[in-house]
Design brief:
The protein is α/β, with parallel strands linked by helices. Helices cover about 25% and strands about 20% of the residues. The N and C termini lie far apart (about 40 Å).
Amino acid sequence: RFIAALGLHGAMKLMDFQKKLGEEIPQKYLVFNHNPYENCTYLGETSRGIPVSVNSEFMACDLKVSVGSLVPHPTAGFGGGGKMILPGVSSTESIAANHGKLCTISDAGVMVLDTWGRVDDNNQRLDMEEIARMAGLDFSINALVNINRDTIALFCGDLVEAQREGVKMARKVYACEAPSDADIVVANAYAKANEAALVAGLGNKMLKESGGDLVIIGNIPEGQICHYLGRSFGKKIGGQLYGHHTKLPSRVKRMFALGPYIDKAGLDWIGPIDQITILNSWAEILDALKKNHGNKAKAVVVPDGTLQYFPHSGLPKGTTIPGD
C-alpha cells in the first residue's frame, strides 16, 4: 500500500495520486492520504521531549520504505530521510511540537525560514531522524531533481546515511552565491509554486539596506497549499504556528505578487495581505517598477527560489557556516 506523506498539508485527490504514481497504481494498490488528526500510534518521546505519534497504517506494515526528494528546506535543511516520517506521517501534536520547540519562532509567532541547507547541526532535523528510527523506517529513497523536476540522481539506503550522501551532491547542485544590494528582486517559486512564502525571506535579504521592491511569482492553478499548522483560517485566526503579518519584511518597501492564480487569502503566509499588490501580467509589473525606478535599477532575478538556496545570504563576507 501507499500513504501520501502529507504532514499537515491538505489532502490529495485521485488526480494527485495519479501524477505521483501513474494512472495504473491507484487502480491496482491501496493509496491513502495521511490523516494527522486521527489513527496515529503513540510511540513515546524523543530525547528532546517531543511526543511521537505515527500513522497507524504505516506502523502496521512489515516493510517500511520512504520515497522523497533532497530539495533544500528552510527549517530542516534538506528534504528526504527522516523528514518523510515527521512531518510526513506523524500526528498534528508531534508535528506542532517539533516545529514549535525546535525551530526559531519570530515575535509574530511565525517560523523563521532561515536554516536552508543545514543538517548535522540542526536540532529539528536530528529530532525527525530520531522519530523515523522509533517508527522503524527500513529503507529511504531520496531523489535529487533539477529545475524541471527530472530525477538526476538517487540516494538509497539507511535514512541518515543515504540522505547525508545525497546532501553532498545537493549542496553542489542547489547552493548559489548570494546577490546583494538590489533595488529590485524578482523571486520565482517554481518547483514549489504552491508555497510562494518560501521565497519572501530570501528576496528580502538580497535587497539593499535602504529598501527596494520584491516581486514574488507563484504561478499554479491550484493556488497556495492548505497548511493546517502555518496558514490562516480566518482574518486573524489560523493554525498553531500561524502568525498574523502586520508589516512587510525589513528591506521590502513594496511587494508585488505576480500571477492569475494568486488569491488574496493565499498571501497570508507571504506578508500582510493589504500591503501586497496582486498583478496578473509581467507588463503590469514592469510598469509599476519603472514608475518607481525609471530605466536604471539593479535587479536580481531568482529563477527558482524553492530549489536554489543561498547559504551566505545576509551574512558578512567571509562567514563560514556548517556545510561549507
